[in-house]
Amino acid sequence: MPGxxxxxxxxxxxxxxxxxxxxxxxxxxxxxxxxxxxKLGAFxxxxxxxxxxxxxxxxxxxxxxLLPIVNAKPDAELLSDLDSTVAWAKSQGxxxxxxxxxxxxxxxxxxxxxxxxxxxxxxGVAFYGPPxxxxxxxxxxSPTQLAPEMKAPVLGLYGEADTGIPVKDVEALKAALAGAGxxxxxxxYPGAPHGFHADYRASYRKEAAEDGWNQMQAWFKKYKVxx
Length: 227
Known about the structure:
Elements: E1 3-6, E2 15-20, H1 28-39, E3 43-47, H2 63-70, H3 75-91, E4 95-104, H4 106-117, E5 121-127, E6 154-159, H5 167-179, E7 184-189, H6 206-222
Parallel strand pairs: 2-3, 2-4, 4-5, 5-6, 6-7
Antiparallel strand pairs: 1-3
């Protein structure tokens, strides 16, 4: 499985942070996030888990063309690919005892899914990951349905003006997690649209993006992913 990684120079056994991509592939924005995490001391890895489709997602900008490709990825295969990425990072000297995951959009959904599956994960940060799924037999449970199964604390960062993720859906996920006694926190940024952290798009909102990045660092430090 191809991917992109960055690690801090001269640091032995750095913590491992998985970077779950948007639907646009491991493009420059995701690579930049990966490098930024390495500057914080992490061995950051962005696996290209859609590679089996034989399509370079970074070359496609039309969302209706992308969706059939990414929606055909079974959750079971995706989670297995993440486990394989963790195993590879460990073989390269990463400290998987300090394992984190960060994701954006569809990758934010992946954060919630992996937090419900992995017993090794210490913490996750989901940037605008959809709490509710469209009907898809390859995705047995949405993040909200998985609330009782969460095994790691997750920070959810959402935009109040996200037209694809209504605040009521975020509140329903929050309530489901609280009802199940799970550890999670949420930030909903006033006026921020979907993709507010994506600095290559018109949706970018500097204040929300910078605060979200700072919240991510604090969350990972709290749960001993970052030092």
